[in-house]
Amino acid sequence: MKKLIALLTVFGFLTFGIANTAFAQDKQKTDDSATTEQVAGEVAEASAAAQAELTEDPDDAVNQSLHYVLKDKFIQGGAVWMTPVLICLILGLAFVIERIFYLNLSSVNSKKLLDKIEDTLKNKGVAAAKELCRDTKGPLAAVFYQGLDRYDEGLESVEKSLTSYGAVQMAKLENNMTWISLFIALAPSLGFLGTVIGMVQAFDDIERAGDISPTIVAGGMKVALLTTVFGLITAMILQVFYNYLLTRIDAIVNDMEDATISFMDILVKNK
Fold first, then answer.
1. Where are the domains of the chain?
2. Phi, psi of 229 (to 5 degrees)
3. Does the reported pTM lie above 0.90?
4. Which residues are CB-contacts of 152 (< 8 A; sequence separation ≥ 6)?
5. CB 253 within 8 A of CB 185
6. What residues contact residue 73 under an 8 Å CB cut-off, 6+ apart?
7. 41-67 mean pLDDT
8. Mean pLDDT throughout 5-12?
9. DSSP H or E run through 124
10. Rounded distance, CA 113 to CA 246, Å?
């Protein structure tokens, strides 16, 4: 009897231990499964957030682009005063582009041209040299042509012709430069005028509201100052191109003066 009770007791402990072990394993598996599902959910949420951020980034980039900002500020400044400033910029850049093309066409290798003229004078005569100058583009060739056209009248007449016609060609190099300088001065002036009128309107709004509200003052002043900002930007852009063009013109004029002296020396040698 005692042996039977002892066997039952041992069997009960073994059964209870096995049951607890199985229960613990099941619980561990359940916890592991829940943890895995939780991690998978968090990863999915992070991926969705990243995808949404990537989707929104292009729009944010567009919204913060320079083109968008300039367009937005232009609209805020008001079309009445911003449009004249924009017209000054467009017309000024148009004259700048025209001058750049003209000066590029006016530039020529003066030394190479002088060598060709000297060789032509020695071998083919004045008529052939005049034809060479006529077929060559640029103000320098035109000045040489006028000098050769007075070749039979003497070197003094040639020198006078070079001086007078050289002044005409130099004046042509400076064509439309006055318009560019006008837009440089006009753009900020229009901006300042728009600012002053905007400030007057802001004070009118304060008077009508009967209170100095920061919102009214800040909004009116912001719109007013935008015209000045765009006017100054326009003037600075055109000023840079204006100085560049002046530098190009001075270089061409100096080259023409040096080449004219060399041209007279060639004529003296072949007289």
1. 1-64, 79-269
2. -60, -50
3. no
4. 126
5. no
6. 226, 229, 230
7. 50
8. 42
9. none
10. 24
Phi, psi of 70 (to 5 degrees): -65, -40
* Residue 124: φ, ψ to 5°: -125, -15
* Averaged pLDDT score across all residues of the chain: 76
Q: Which residue has the tokens 């190099």?
A: 173
Is-contact 77 223, C-beta < 8 A?
A: yes
Please name which of 160, 151, 230, 218 lies closest in space to residue 190, comparing C-alpha atoms: 230
Evaluate whether 267 touches 120 at the Cβ level (below 8 Å): no
Distance CA 261, CA 125 (A): 20
Q: What is the pLDDT of residues 158-194, one digit of tens each?
A: 888 888 888 888 889 999 999 999 999 999 998 888 8
CA–CA distance, 5 with 16 (Å, rounded to integer):
16
What are residue 65's phi and psi, to 5 degrees? -70, 160
The Cα-based distances of 55 to 49, 63, 65, 69, 76 in angstroms read 10, 14, 17, 21, 28
Q: What is the pLDDT of residue 46?
A: 47
Helix 214-269 and helix 66-77, axial crossing angle in degrees, nearest 10: 110
Q: How far apart are CA 162 and CA 220, in angstroms?
A: 60
Q: What is the C-alpha to C-alpha distance for residues 33 and 25, in angstroms, rounded to an integer?
A: 12
Give the pLDDT band of residue 244 (cuts 50, 70, 90): very high
Mean pLDDT of 234-239: 95
Residues ≥6 apart with Cβ < 8 Å to 144: 113, 117, 133, 162, 263
